[in-house]
Specification:
heterodimer; A: mainly alpha; Serine Threonine Protein Phosphatase 5, Tetratricopeptide repeat; 4 domains; three-stranded mixed beta sheet; 7 strands; 5% strand; flat; B: 810 residues; mainly alpha; 5 helical Cullin repeat like; 9 strands
């Protein structure tokens, strides 16, 4: 900590006291509220143990990860205190706050078990871990100024030509009850006249608010605009009543206290986000229609419709999904008789049993969407900005097929509209591919996180996991997906996954295939180039057996011991400490698979951590080992040897 | 996939990866057809989604390389066939034959325009089309650029355009490439525009933008834009030739004015061209070309062009031309050397002229004096200005006029340029100090207007004149000489009560103080103080006298100035201090004042300066029974003489001298003024002649008549009260020299005291530096002074005679 910013103890106490008082008075919101729910307890427990899977599950459950338990611990503090790097990373990525100069933040930093975790915490300063909704908010705000491609469907005009605003009905309807009523009554409206009593700058401010923008510090009145600040303010007051957005004028007045303003804004974005989310669920999702794939392209939606959609996205169900319930209500032909607004009436969508309920009845889902939101993806941005068919004006809404299953498309759309992405392991890979195709980096990361956390089982190298059922994951597919979609994180995950279960995979022919493939991924591979996957596996293998050795400073303690031991076993000149990760095993060091591991070498490798307990102490070769430490060391050597043998077999040099 | 057998919760990706057997060829066929459509500008029915998906699939199946190469060869074939043919057709023979005169320029021009527009059009179209293709291939681009392997397909396509179109030969027979032809045509059009024809600027702009968007290599470095590597150098070369020619032509036939305006017009044109037709990047470069080829090469010659050069411009006040000229010179040389030198020479020349004429006027003074003095008979003659004063005033006015002119030029033509200001200052300094009598002239000039006889001018005018006079002060090198002149002149003004007002004097002093520093005005301020003190003293004395009055009444009023001797530059030669015999009444008052003053301040000595005094007396002349009483203001000596005639009818010169004890020389002048001067002949002189001899007799003049009741008898002066004769001037000079000697001494001692030890050279420079604010010290004088200081053991010489230095002795 830089010296001059440190508060003296008494000053710190005063500021903490003041903060507490403010919180009690309800002016400020507690950053870390007490949470005694069961789920939160489970989250804390998982953070303590480093159980990524449970953590991810709890996060997806919607537990407040910034809450604290009855001992004032937040999950983040627990995870960093107990030294679970991956867990800390997951928590931070999911929005856990570690803000400098706050009580809990400093506590977290101070408690971090090692420098690696501390640096990770520091790299997630407040600026990075902003409100998770921030990207959504800034996209909405940018819509106010974007002219290309055209996404607006309503124009609000002021008294003069210059004061016109190009807006989006669905945002207005979602955010303002007034507009909702108006537009529900007449969805085909394309212009709206601003009441003359309201100065355009005031409406501009109100719009900023509706579009989740940061409210301006200046009111924008003054010379040249024709309005004074107070007139603008009064106008804001009127318009906020008019549009039934009551918090607006409060917000504008309370711009002074930065922390307060920040919290208010966060709240406001929260509200806005959930309003849009709710609207999305109520309209886009509810009006999604399911039809036979063969007929999907014939669906005609009028341009003027109750959900204000300007594009239809189509997703076809998988052909080979026979188990899918074929009795899903199909939209019959007549259901395409739309009401006046162009919305197929849900009521009239009578399920018509398809005469041939065979597997051939492939179905598609159509989602009415808004270009304004879709252009968050560069894919759609390019599509709507191009001269291709999709960007042309047609009498009815265009139908754009998206190459994924309806469930995946739902997730993608939910992400577009709400910034939320909660899905299970079963869809994760599909989402990963869809996100990759649509250039949605964030969603891609999210999918990778889901896979690497939920798929991992418990994180550490507990031997118990061998008994656990973790066959629910095909690591080869994941690795392929990681390569295809270029997600480093998943590659690492796969390597770790394999490393911790190398016994199962090492003899699998598919594993050899994978290694070969990994080797071929490097263009113009040189003799001496390493094979990425094997390097990674070696690294995690050493991690698995050495555990937290490096971090804890035991190395030094061990070094002295080692020296003694070395004297004792001086007859073995070739004795080497174990290869550090990343370095190559010298070829002549290759361990003969059949020869029993040398005792002295295993002595040097004794990990102090005795988490591993198992009844029978036998190596993988079936040799009896002295104790579990020796067993580990021997196993390690055996596995390394097996890798080398594999390389020999594949005629790969590494 | 074998792994799928494990099933379980996570599912393998279903779409893209499942079908291993994507048929590359058929997928490519779809894309291929679509791309052809795009190039045929027929894309509106193509589905982006479908194309994207196909391309995506190929890439996902690791067929990116295949796709990339196919697209590349497709683009090549499109460029080679469709695009190229469109352009080559327009490269008509008339366009290709650049030099031949047979093709009429009109024909060539239209052909050129057609060619350029076709080329730019196909470039624009092509880049839009390729842009669409790039959009479709977005996923491929993303992957390959992310892995840093390949440039984007867009870049590749533009590179192909460059290679296949621009670099292609126009036709089989000719080696000229399309790019060459384009550049040639562009240069031709620009040449046309330079010669005053209208050309299609947007067209040129469009083609330049094309060249700016194309790069030499696929790495797209900023510096390898075709515009920069190919077109711009050619353009600059062509321009260089063009302006070199134009410069010579202009010099041959045109005058400086035309040259300047043409050059500035060219500058404007070129920067406009860069903005409107070419690229902004070129602007500084082309401007540099003009500066070098057109301006720098010829400007010196232009400035000195006889008849139209700078001399003519300044003489005829051609402000605009001068400003043009200045701007041009300023562009090529911030120090403005050519202009500066020319102006310097001009100023010096004119200044010399002024100096010469002033000195001439001044030296004419002896001869015309007599007729001028005698002549005025008609009307009340304006007090004839002394020839010296005329010369001085003329000189100063000329100088001021010159300065005003150049100030105006500086402000309006030279844009208040600092360098010019400095140079003008130096020029003025040079020629003003070329006039050895400049300090005297300036002082005389100021004196002239500080005196009441500038009355025909309003106060504001006088003020302005004085102000400008003060501005001249700073040009003077010998400020100490000015100081002594001004001091003397001011003393006289104050004593003679000739000054307009003391406030004016004071404000004048403060102006000088601003320009020349405190030290300069200390003495002058002493003068003013004395005058004020004296006024008080007179009042006090009057009170004092009033008390005495009760006892005995005196008809004499006394008004006096008590002056500090050291402050006032009044000659105090022995002869003048000789005590004179006052008439009894006056003597009485004098004694009483002495008593009063010495009673007030003990230990002081009062010396009466008779020659400075003045008396007002009432004289009654009886003629034809009529008694006319005049009130006459006369100098003290006159008063003394006239009083004698209260008691005597007739006196000879000798007698008068005996009675009054006035020094001869003074008495002669006194007698001349009361008996010879035609207007104030209060006494009759026998024999009547101009010269006064010791034996001349004087008597009361009963016929005296004067048109006013109140008048003044002026002392026939020693030529003038203002101007010195040669001798006095020498004296002033000597005094100034003495003064300078002291200053030099002081400066040297001060420097040495601070430094203890210095080399000769350093001491000299430091001394000169310190003194130059007062005057321009002569090296010889400083050397002499150092010698004397060594003699007086303030300093000693350093030990090393080869490297002369001095040590301070304290």
């Amino acid at each position: 900590m830089s010296g001059n910013s440190i508060l003296r103890k008494d000053q710190l106490e005063v500021s903490l006291h003041n903060e507490k008082k403010l919180i009690e008075e309800g002016v400020l919101k507690e950053d870390n509220p007490l949470d005694v729910s069961d789920n939160f307890r489970r989250l804390c427990e998982a953070s303590r143990r480093g159980d990524l899977k449970v953590c991810q599950e709890m996060v997806q459950e919607g537990v407040n990860i910034n809450a604290k338990d009855q001992y004032d611990y937040t999950p983040l503090i627990l995870a960093s205190l107990c030294g679970h790097y991956e867990t800390v990373q997951l928590l931070l990525e999911s929005g856990a706050l570690c803000e400098r100069d706050t009580f809990q933040g400093e506590r977290c930093l101070y408690n971090a078990l090692n420098d690696r975790i501390r640096n990770l915490l520091l790299s997630y300063d407040y600026s990075k871990s902003t409100d998770p909704l921030q990207p959504l908010a800034s996209h909405l705000t940018s819509l106010l100024y974007r002219t290309q491609p055209k996404t607006s469907d309503i124009t609000v005009t002021g008294s003069t030509e210059n004061d016109s605003f190009n807006l989006h009905k669905f945002i207005l309807a979602a955010r303002s009850p007034y507009f909702k009523k108006k537009l529900d009554a007449a969805p085909e409206t394309t212009t709206w006249k601003l009441p003359s009593s309201i100065p355009p700058p005031s409406f501009g401010i109100a719009l900023k608010h509706l579009y989740l923008g940061e409210l301006p510090r200046e009111l924008g009145g003054g010379p040249g605009t024709g309005f004074t600040d107070s007139e603008v303010l009064a106008g804001v007051d009127r318009i906020s009543k008019h549009l039934e957005i009551k918090t607006l004028s409060e917000l504008i007045l309370d711009n002074s206290d930065r922390r307060l303003a920040r919290q208010r804004r966060q709240d406001e974005i929260q509200i806005g986000g959930s309003q849009i989310g709710a609207w999305f669920q109520d309209n886009v999702m509810r009006h999604a229609i399911t039809t036979l794939t063969s007929k999907a392209d014939d669906v005609k939606w009028d341009k003027n419709n109750g959900v204000f959609a300007d594009i239809l996205l189509r997703a076809d169900e998988d052909e080979d999904e026979e188990e899918e319930d074929a009795t899903i209500a199909l939209i019959s032909e007549q259901s395409k008789n739309t009401n006046v607004l162009g919305i197929p009436l849900a009521g009239s969508a009578r399920p018509s049993r398809s005469p041939s309920r065979t597997r051939s009845a492939r179905k598609s889902m159509l989602f009415p969407c808004h270009k304004a939101m879709l252009i968050r993806s560069e894919y759609f941005m390019t599509m709507f900005d191009s001269a291709f068919k999709e960007a042309q004006n047609t009498p009815h809404l265009q139908i754009v097929p998206i190459d994924c299953s309806p469930e995946v498309l739902k997730i993608v759309l939910t992400f577009f509209y709400t910034e939320k992405a909660d899905f299970g392991l079963d869809l994760a890979i599909d989402v990963l591919f869809a996100a990759d195709m649509l250039f949605l980096e964030k969603l891609k990361t999210k999918a990778a996180v889901v896979i690497s956390t939920l798929g991992n089982g418990t994180a550490t190298g507990m031997q118990t996991e061998d008994q656990r059922e973790d066959l629910d994951i095909n690591i080869y597919d994941i690795l392929h997906a990681a390569w295809t979609t270029r997600v480093q994180r998943l590659e690492e995950f796969a390597a770790r996954y394999i490393a911790y279960r190398l016994e199962q995979y090492i003899d699998d022919p598919a594993f050899a295939e994978i290694v070969k493939e990994s080797a071929s991924r490097i263009n113009a591979r040189q003799e001496t180039d390493s094979i990425e996957i094997l390097d990674d596996i070696r690294f995690y293998l050493s991690e698995r057996f050495r555990l937290r050795f490096e971090d804890t400073g035991f190395d030094e303690a061990m070094a002295a011991e080692e020296a003694q031991l070395e004297q004792a076993v001086a007859e073995d000149g070739k004795q080497q400490p174990l290869p550090v990760w990343g370095t190559e095993m010298p070829a002549d060091e290759g361990v003969d698979m059949t020869s029993p591991p040398r005792e002295p070498e295993s002595e040097t490798e004794v990990p102090s951590d005795s988490l591993m307990t198992e009844g029978v102490i036998r190596t993988l070769d079936g040799e009896i080992a002295g104790d579990e430490f020796e067993q580990d060391a021997m196993n390690y050597q055996i596995l390394l040897g097996k890798i080398d043998a594999l390389l020999d077999k594949l005629k790969l040099d590494a | 996939m074998s792994g799928r057998a494990r099933g379980g919760k996570i599912r393998a990706p279903r779409r893209a990866l499942t079908k291993d057997d994507v048929d590359c060829e058929s997928v490519w066929e779809v894309l291929h057809r679509a791309f052809r459509e795009i190039h045929a500008r027929n894309a509106s029915q193509l589905s982006f989604e479908e194309l994207f998906r196909n391309a995506y699939k190929l890439v996902l199946k690791k067929k990116g390389e295949f796709l990339f190469e196919n697209v590349k060869s497709l683009e090549i074939s499109i460029l080679d066939t469709d695009v190229k043919s469109r352009i080559v057709d327009l490269a008509t023979p008339s366009l290709l034959l650049s030099g031949s005169s047979e093709t009429s320029s009109v024909e060539k021009r239209t052909a050129g325009e057609r060619f350029i527009s076709a080329l730019t059009k196909s470039y624009q179209d092509y880049s839009i089309e390729v842009g669409m293709i790039t959009d479709v291939l977005m996923y491929m681009d993303r992957i390959s650029t992310a892995e840093g392997r390949k440039p984007s397909i867009f870049t590749i396509a533009l590179g192909l355009f460059r290679e296949r179109i621009l670099r292609a030969a126009v036709s089989e027979e000719l080696s000229m490439s399309i790019l060459d032809l384009l550049e040639m045509t562009l240069l031709d059009m620009i040449a046309l525009e330079r010669s005053g024809e209208m050309i299609d600027r947007p067209l040129i702009k469009a083609s330049c933008r094309m060249l700016e968007n194309l790069y030499e290599t696929i790495t797209e470095e900023e510096s390898t834009k075709l515009y920069l590597t190919s077109f711009e150098p050619k353009y600059l070369d062509a321009s260089r030739d063009y302006y070199r020619n134009e410069g010579q032509l202009l010099l041959q036939e045109a005058d400086a004015t035309t040259f300047c305006s043409q050059a500035s017009r060219r500058l404007k044109e070129e920067s406009e061209r860069c903005q409107q037709s070419l690229s902004r990047v070129t602007e500084p470069k082309i401007i540099a070309v003009i500066e070098k080829e057109l301006i720098a090469a010829h400007i010196a010659e232009v400035i000195n062009l006889p008849g139209t050069g700078i001399r003519a411009m300044i003489t005829n006040d051609k402000i605009d031309d001068l400003r043009n000229l200045y701007d041009l010179v300023h562009r090529i040389d911030q120090r403005l050397k050519p202009l500066k030198d020319a102006v310097h020479n001009l100023v010096l020349e004119v200044g010399e002229e002024i100096n010469k004429s002033a000195l001439q006027t001044a030296s004419e003074k002896q001869q015309p004096k007599a007729p001028e003095k005698k002549e005025p008979g008609k009307g009340p003659p304006p007090k004839p200005l002394n020839q010296q004063t005329v010369a001085a005033v003329n000189w100063v006015e000329e100088v001021l006029k010159l300065k005003a002119k150049y100030d105006k030029l500086w402000e309006r033509a030279f844009r208040c340029d600092g360098v010019m200001e400095k140079s003008l200052e130096i020029s003025f300094q040079d020629f003003i100090n070329g006039n050895s009598r400049a300090p005297e002239f300036v002082s005389l000039f100021l004196d002239q207007y500080l005196k009441s006889n500038g009355k025909d001018k309003t106060e504001a005018e006088v003020d302005a004149l004085l102000d400008s006079g003060v501005t001249l002060l700073q040009y003077l090198a010998d400020k100490d000489i000015l100081e002594s002149y001004y001091h003397k002149h001011m003393a006289k003004r104050l004593l003679m009560n000739k000054t307009i007002s003391r406030d004016v004097e004071r404000s004048m002093l403060s102006k000088m103080k601003v320009k020349l520093g405190n030290q300069f005005t200390v003495k002058m301020e002493g003068l003013l103080k004395d005058v004020e003190l004296s006024e008080n003293l007179t009042k006090q004395y009057k009170d004092y006298a009033a008390k005495l009055e009760a006892k005995k009444s005196s008809k004499v009023d006394l008004e006096m100035h008590v002056l500090t001797m050291t402050v006032w530059p009044i000659f105090t030669s022995e002869s003048e201090l000789r005590s004179c015999v006052y008439p009894a009444e006056v003597a009485q008052v004098k004694e009483s004042f002495e008593k009063f003053y010495l009673g007030k301040h003990t230990g002081r000595k009062l010396t009466w300066m008779h020659h400075m005094g003045e008396a007002t007396m009432r004289a009654t002349f009886k003629k034809d029974g009529q008694a006319v009483t005049y009130e006459v203001a006369v100098p003290t000596f006159c008063m003394m003489v006239l009083m004698l005639f209260n008691d005597h009818e007739k006196l000879t010169f000798d007698e008068i001298q005996q009675l009054t004890n006035i020094p001869t020389e003074q008495l002669i002048r006194t007698m001349q003024s009361v008996a010879v001067a035609p207007k104030t002949r209060l006494l009759k002189k026998e024999p009547m002649s101009r010269d006064v001899n010791p034996t001349d007799e004087f008597s009361h003049n009963p016929d005296f008549k004067h048109q006013f009741r109140k008048f003044k008898v002026a002392l026939v002066s020693e030529q003038s009260n203002k101007v010195e004769n040669a001798e006095e001037r020498k004296e002033t000079q000597k005094k100034a020299d003495d003064q300078r000697g002291l200053l030099v001494d002081a400066a040297v001692v001060r420097i040495m005291k601070a430094r203890k030890s210095l080399t000769h050279q350093q001491l000299m420079t430091e001394t000169i530096q310190i003194l130059s604010s007062r005057f321009q010290p002569e090296v010889a004088m400083i050397k002499k002074k150092i010698e004397t200081l060594i003699d007086r053991e303030y300093l000693e010489r350093g030990p090393d005679p080869a490297n002369p230095s001095y040590n301070y002795l304290a």
